Amino acid sequence: MSDKVIGFLMVLGSLAVVAFLLIWTIIMPFLDPNFLFKAYIALAIIVFLAVFAAMIIVAWIGVTLIKTSPPEEILDELEENKETEEESKNENESEEK
Question: What is the pTM of this model?
């Protein structure tokens, strides 16, 4: 599976978790009037913010995976750079002699 696909799935997964927790911990207590509202909402906000922060980090990693080139392209670029460096060294050595 491509890194871009994995990154996209990480972003979608983290957004799905945040949406689920937002609905379950923040919106549902307003819809059910029999809830122990004050104690619950204080804990729910803290838990929601903690999970939200963790999902932001997961989404950031996913976006980074989407934007990053695959390792093969990076390796190819490194090999090309080494070849050009070797060629320039060889040219410098031949000029010195």
Answer: 0.48
